Amino acid sequence: MDRERFAELVAEAVDALPEQFAERLDNVAIVIDDEPSRQLLQELELDPRRDTLFGLFHGVPLRERGANHAMHLPDTITIFYRPLVHAYRSPGAIRREISRTLVHEIGHLFGFSEEEIRHAGY
Known about the structure:
This protein is of the alpha+beta class. It has 6 helices and 3 strands, in the order ααβαββααα. A 3-stranded mixed beta sheet has the order 1-3-2. The radius of gyration is 14 Å and the shape is globular. 45% of the residues lie in helices and 13% in strands. The chain has a single domain (3-61, 73-119), classed as Zincin-like (2-Layer Sandwich). Helix 1 (3-15) crosses helix 5 (91-109). The two termini are 23 Å apart.
């Protein structure tokens, strides 16, 4: 799958979010990157030889924000292109995993831990 079609699927996943999620994304940039860097994986205590990421939330979770948070740059949710298209071959499977990854990262935006999000099935 080329990057253009991948970007379309990411946009479709964002558009399909329930309103209660979408309305909280007003100061969140959703970006596509090729793949996580080796350094990023190591910072997250992942082994770059065998581990990867499909997505990453970078910012301040909503429940930790103070009154002056409006002055900060937008938080970001990054969706990683190469790991997803290598792990999932069909457009339908890629579409499903993009949506799942997006919801997973929005969970971090809401302040849920990795364990809580995985327990919820994402």
